[in-house]
Amino acid sequence: MKKVVLSLGVLLGSLYGPAYAQQTADWKYVQGKIVTPWAEKVVAANPLPEYPRPQMTRPNWQNINGLWNYAIVPQSAGDTKPSTFDGKILVPFAVESALSGVGKTVGKDSILWYQRLIDFAPKLKDQRVLIHFGAVDWKAEVFVNGKPAGSHQGGYDPFSFDITDLLVKKKQQEIVVKVWDPSSDGPQPRGKQIKNPHGIWYTPVTGIWQTVWLETVATSHITSVTPVADIDKQTLTVNTAVAGAGAADKVKITAWDGVNKVAEQEVAPNQPATLNISDAKLWSPDAPNLYNLTVTLTRNGKPVDEVKSYAAMRKIGVQVDENGIQRMTLNNKFLFQYGPLDQGWWPDGLYTAPTDEALKFDILKTKEMGFNMIRKHVKVEPARWYRYCDELGMLVWQDMPSGDLGNNWEMRPGITGNETDKKRTPESENIYKTEWKAIMDANRFFPSIVVWVPFNEAWGQFKTAEITNWTMQYDPSRLVNSASGGNFEPVGHIIDLHNYPAPVMPRPDLFGEKQIIVLGEFGGLGLPVDQHVWQQKDNWGYQSFKNQEELYNRYATFIDRFEPLIKKGLSAAVYTQTTDVEVETNGLMTYDRKVIKFPETKLKQIHSKLYDPSFVKLRGK
């Protein structure tokens, strides 16, 4: 089918000239830890040059990743930009990472400053210039030519500011970013980050960790595109948002199957368009069909703005089987969902894959191993990661990154008396709710995402019913797994047990009539591989083995246990985990991705039997 074209932007070397070229030649990543094969492919003049927003593309953009000046100063130093800087940092890699070229910890008592000059000569007749940040952890304040452009709190959602009125006529512009991140000393969502890494808790991630870019748009322009499919009605509703729309403006949405136009409708700005997609090609892991979209803002019949997008016709749902057990369905059919717990960490880039090829690699390997689902664990990925899941046919369960931990965890369903809610402050509650909504807003576009997971293992879990019900109401097109691994409440679509190492399930006669039964984590079989570990001693796994043969044989016994569980009522399972992460050595691959611990062909073969449609008969089918 026709691919969405992703512009590569302007090479940073040409932006900065000879002096910048010399600086990039001097850059090197911090030595001392293992790195992935892609670390040597990182080009300091042009890191991660790919278009960062594949769900809504325009040709007129400029990537401003690369070497910036940085300084780490005491928080007591105040709000004034430092007069001198400590050195160069490679954006968009967090300051603690090896690929940043810095490898320093910041913490709650310090401020991280970024500064750089770019060559950008604005041509502003009926145009606006936006600066976009894919993600900055955690609080960011942005200044352009010495004036404030805006501030943002949240480490996992993209944000942008209109900087048109802050630009100067001369060609060179100054961009300054001030970042404060309290890491595990604050109540904000932080996932697995902790100031003293150990066990299942990892190195902090501070500052810019996704692409920074400029975009020139018309004064009236499209700001978002959100398709919602209804395969039963054979319709695709496309919601578009438009800034600065005129009274007579129109938005035209055209859907394409390759070069063939399949539907088109014109509506007023900020109004939904419903396209009829007859005989739709449904999206699934086996057939990840995508329709390309062209969205055009017109005024008096002439184009004012246009973006390229895409959509999929797919449905995630719940149906009852012949025994009265709730089952998770895809496109009105039962499909057992099976995949790894994917933390999305890198030994060289921490939260950030060293290259786009690396970003795609984990998904490709997961697919080649015969998995059809990934649980993205307490982290959110760049938009391009979800685009690859859409293209390759990978179902995604998206966790909310956890934070403000400290309450009691009860992992056994049906047991009460031990679990507690986290007593969050009003500020902490607001931070969570604001960022969860922002994460959903940023990622609800992607059809690969089929389940939202607000809480994991009671980490900061609070007001479970309120958060779950809000999530279900805000996005009724997906399922909600309210509390993966405990503290269970009778809300949401799913009851999700964690059990290590062997697969088990909650009894369907007790729990299956009201909720879908899943095994949200199991396995954790460990194998440290010499020369491919974060540290040579004191590595950790739920159960460790001496060689790959022992590891595979144990894993194969787990797969053999699934057939009776699926027939009884199990709808999905998640194996821990995709890769080793720091001292955890229970990955399907080593942390550096250089060793695949399992034979991929054999894995795909034994996994294929889990998807036998004869295991489950839906009522009325």
Your description of this structure?
The protein is built from 10 helices and 34 strands. The two termini are 33 Å apart. The longest helix is centred in the C-terminal third of the chain and has 18 residues, at 426-443. Helix content is 16%, strand content 31%. Helix 3 (356-368) packs parallel to helix 4 (383-392). 49% of the residues are buried. The protein is α/β, with parallel strands linked by helices and 621 residues long. The strands form 9 sheets. It has an 8-stranded parallel β-sheet, covered by helices on one side. Strands 3-2-4-10-7-8 form a 6-stranded antiparallel β-sheet. Strand 23, helix 3 (356-368) and strand 24 form a beta-alpha-beta unit. The model is unreliable at 1-14 (pLDDT under 50).
The biggest beta sheet reads: 8 strands, parallel
Tell me the Rg in angstroms. Answer: 24 Å
- The strand count comes to 34
Strand order of the largest sheet: 28-26-25-24-23-34-31-30
Residue share in helix: 10-25%
The total of helices stands at 10
Which structural class matches the secondary elements?
A: alpha/beta
Low-confidence stretches: 1-14
Oligomer: single chain
Strand content: 25-35%
Kindly state the mean pLDDT as a whole number? 94
* Shape assignment: globular
End-to-end C-alpha gap: 33 Å
